[in-house]
Each structure stands twice: as C-alpha cells, then as structure tokens.
Amino acid sequence: MPSSLKQLLRVGTRESALARWQTDMALAELNALNAGIEFDIVPIKTSGDKVLNKPLAEIGGRGVFVKELEEALFAKEVDFVVHSLKDLPTEMPEGLVLGATLNREDPRDVLVCNAGTSFEQLPAGSRVATSSRRRSAQLCALRQDLCFVDIRGNIATRLRKHDEGVCDAMVLAAAGLLRLGQNARICHYFDAETCTPAPGQGALAIECRLDAPVIRELLHRIHDERVGATTTAERAFLSKLGGGCSVPVGALAILQSNGTMELSGCIASLDGKQVFRRRLSAPSVRAEQLGFNLADEMISAGAGEVLSCLVLSPPNAISPP
Question: Are both 79 and 92 inside the same structural domain?
C-alpha cells in the first residue's frame, strides 16, 4: 500500500438494500487487491430517497440520487462514493471524477407480474408501473391499450405495492432484482430492440475527488476496461442529447470480439407514436465519438423535436409510498 494512502477510507453510499449490496460488491473488489486498507461505510440519504410523493422527472430526474453523495465528497466527509452508473449525470461537478466503472450485470429491463404472464399477454387496460419515462415511452409504442403509471420507492417497496394491487405489472431493471436474489419475480426479459436500456444500466460507478491521486490510482486498479468502453459510448450518446436535462433515452453498446463496438440508441415520444431507433459501429477505441455520432444521426433524422417535447411534458401522478 502506498504510504500516502490512509489505512481507513470512508465510503459513501445510499441507504437502500441494493445500494449497500452494490457497495459491498465494489469493496470486495478492492479488498481482493490486498492493499491493507479498511473501509468505513457511510450511509447517505439522497433527495431521490427522501421525496417519494413526486415523479423523478418533477424533482430533477438524473442526479437526484447523487447530489448529497457528491456534497459529502466535497466536504471530505467521505473519500469516494459508489453509484449505479445510470444515476450519474453525464456532466460531473468540477473537482469530481469517475474513478472506476465495473461489475455490469444484465442491462435489460424486465417485467414483474404476479399473473406470470408476458408483456404481450397482459390484458388490455392493465396498469403497468415504472418510474422511467424511457420505459413507458418505448413500451407504449408496442401496447397503446395499456395504462402506464409512475411508481416510486426502492425495489422492496415497489414489489410490495405490486403485491398489494397498486398495479397489475411493473417494469424494472433486471440488475437490481438479480443482485437482490429476486430472480423468481421476473416473468419476462425485454430485448434491447424492444426496450433499449438506460445508458450505463447495470454497471457500478465509483466517484472520487480529482485532487486525490492516490485514491484514484487505487480505484483504477478495479476499473473494468470493457465496462468503461461500452458505457463511455452510451453516456456520450446521452450527453450529446442533453444528459443534464433528464432526457429519457435508451442506449446499449456491445463490444464484439474483434474490437468493434456496436451502439444502439432509441428515442420515443411519450405517446408511443414516434420511435427513433438507430445503430452504429466503430472501433472500441473511438467509443466516445461513436456515441456523439449516433446522437447526431438521430437528431438529423428528426428526433430533436421529440426530445424537446419530452423535456417539457409533465410527469404522471404516482402511487403513494
């Protein structure tokens, strides 16, 4: 262990069971380095965790699950923080950096339905709950006879609401359910051509201060280059489309064995009547430019007007906590 690195590092994380599980996963990677460091986990409640009676789009969308964690970093109350990468805005505050991306679980979205049916088999009029306008916009294009409703809360809360009859089905990220051992609740996986995931979905991100080079070096040792490359392309795509404005777009990059990266993107209007899907490929070393190029292509195809409407449209009412 470098002599300039403290023996005890403080790690910021959200308080949910999933956030703690993800933090434990990241710390297991660091412990495997045998660097002789101990970690103190510091739970932090974010705005997204506190305000459960408003849709995410109304309270700020992207960034509502990271603001307080970043404030703790600036105040030097913690040395680094662990996020779900999809929660982290593409524009990071000056003085903070992404130290590592790692451990990407299945990035797909899934359907949870106690009736055990697939999305296609849901009866007309079924209430399908999701906190994501990206999901509801893409799925509305397939089933305009369904009622998409907003829902908030951690995974356990959402599953409880479903069991209590608040909704007939719900759409969640596969990663969270798989990590919490809730595989049995999944009755249908959406392929990326049906419901393109959020940029970075399923990956972990570790954020730290720019002026902490020794910690940055430590985190870099657990950085997964493949996860870093694919999520760089996805986040570049989102950034070019306005990643700081809670833009509900989908993107998924696949790294081929020959070093080529294929990036798929989707933008859909909330009523499901306009869906833009494009795909581009490039060498993985040009991941960021690939994301920018795909965004430019979609804007040229007419997706810019849909994006403007998405940003201005009001969110749906949500279920009580």
Answer: yes
Q: How far is the CA of 56 from the CAs of 67, 160, 173, 183, 226, in angstroms?
A: 14, 20, 16, 26, 30
Together in a domain, 219 and 99 = yes
Catalytic (active-site) positions:
87
Residue 321 domain flag:
no
pTM: 0.90
Coil, helix or strand at residue 270:
coil
The count of C-alpha atoms lying within 13 angstroms of the C-alpha of 116, restricted to the half-sphere facing its C-beta, is 1
Structure tokens at 315: 């969110």
- pLDDT level of residue 242 (50, 70, 90 thresholds): confident
Q: Rounded distance, CA 49 to CA 76, Å?
A: 22
In a domain? residue 320: no
pLDDT at 4: 56
Nearest CA to 202 out of 138, 108, 99 is that of 108
**Neighbour-count burial for 24-62, b at 16+ CB within 10 Å, e otherwise:** eebbebbeeeeeebebeebebebebbeebeebbbbbbbb
What six digits make up the tokens of 74?
Answer: 């600036």
Point out which residues pair with 102 in neighbouring strands. Answer: 204
- Round to whole Å and give the CA distance between 295 and 5: 41
Q: Is the pLDDT of residue 134 over 80?
A: yes
The pLDDT value recorded for residue 46 is: 73
According to DSSP, residue 300 is labeled I
Cα–Cα distance for residue pair 69/49, rounded to 1 Å:
12
Domain that holds residue 304: 225-315
What type of residue sits at position 176?
A: G
